[in-house]
Amino acid sequence: MEEVARSVDATPDLVPMLASLFDGLEALGSTPGRIVSLIAGHVRRGGRVLDLACGKGAVAVEVARRLPVRVEGVDACGEFLDRARERSSALGVAARCRWVEADVRAYAKGCTVRFDLSMMIGLLPLSEAAPLLRRLTRPGGVYVVDDAMLDGRHPGAGRFAGVPDAVMGREIVEELGDRVIRRVMVPRAAIASQNRRILRLLASRVAALAKAHPGRARSLRAFLSRQRSASRLLVGPLRPTIWVIRRGADR
Ligand SMILES: C[S@@+](CC[C@H](N)C(=O)[O-])C[C@H]1O[C@@H](n2cnc3c(N)ncnc32)[C@H](O)[C@@H]1O
């Protein structure tokens, strides 16, 4: 559960309250509408789509709602999956959704299915997500990674030398034998307005939870402060970027 906490900028002591902390927020950093528009032309009717680290299923459920496909969502946080299950039922797409509670790496190791399209939105960096997803995607299929990319022209870029820029990202993909077919940098204005909305909501959740659990108040405030710093970086040297990748042949 340590990685689950880290993936949402929380500390392990906050894991029992993650569902309450993110109450009211379906997408944990993703933009479901944008992702669905990007993948719509790449999956056929009845195709199989995988969302690894699906969180509350914001993207997976939107895919099932807008496209005639079957969706599998995998996440290590059972409470997030409960929300995904409820949401898929409420929107009438539960019959085409399957939710699996698992660690993404263990799932990838044990999975024998090759999906038509697979994605990882906001968990592992491109260098780790791409090999994991390609193993789960059929040759000729498509995988999607949403990850922070370095904007090399930004004055603060020097501090993040290990984060891939556009050129390094393409190299990572091509070394695997795959090809980038789209790369979308989310516009700064869109990120800024999404961040404002998320931070407002998180600030009110933190205030309520700190009152109800005074022993956790310090951790909760530190969480909010990390969220604010991460938000600033994402309109600075790091830019959320969606990579749409055509998987090559088996090697
Ligand atoms: C930033 S959230 C993104 C969630 C979702 N993709 C979205 O955009 O709304 C990261 C997600 O990764 C999940 N996670 C973290 N480590 C994981 C692991 N090792 N295996 C499976 N899920 C994990 C967390 O529970 C969380 O739901």
Structural summary, described in words:
The protein is an alpha/beta fold. The chain has one domain (2-246): Rossmann fold (3-Layer(aba) Sandwich), CATH 3.40.50. The chain contains 10 helices and 7 strands. It has helices at residues 2-7, 18-21, 32-39, 58-66, 78-90, 104-110, 126-136, 166-175, 188-212, 217-233, and strands at 48-52, 70-75, 97-101, 115-121, 137-150, 179-185, 238-246. Strands 3-2-1-4-5-7-6 form a 7-stranded mixed β-sheet, sandwiched between helices. It starts with a helix and ends in a 5-residue tail after the last strand. Bound molecules: S-adenosylmethionine. S-adenosylmethionine is lined by residues 3-4, 7-8, 27-30, 53-55, 58-59, 75-77, 80, 103-104, 121-123.
What are the distinct ligands in this entry?
S-adenosylmethionine
For the largest sheet, list the strands in their spatial order: 3-2-1-4-5-7-6
Q: Tell me roughly what share of residues is in helical segments.
A: 40-55%
Q: Structural class of the secondary structure composition?
A: alpha/beta
Highest CATH level, the class: Alpha Beta
The gross shape turns out to be: globular
Instruction: Return residue spans where pLDDT drops below 50 for at least 5 consecutive residues.
Output: none
Provide the fold topology:
Layout: H1 2-7, H2 18-21, H3 32-39, E1 48-52, H4 58-66, E2 70-75, H5 78-90, E3 97-101, H6 104-110, E4 115-121, H7 126-136, E5 137-150, H8 166-175, E6 179-185, H9 188-212, H10 217-233, E7 238-246
Parallel strand pairs: 1-2, 1-4, 2-3, 4-5
Antiparallel strand pairs: 5-7, 6-7
The structure holds S-adenosylmethionine.
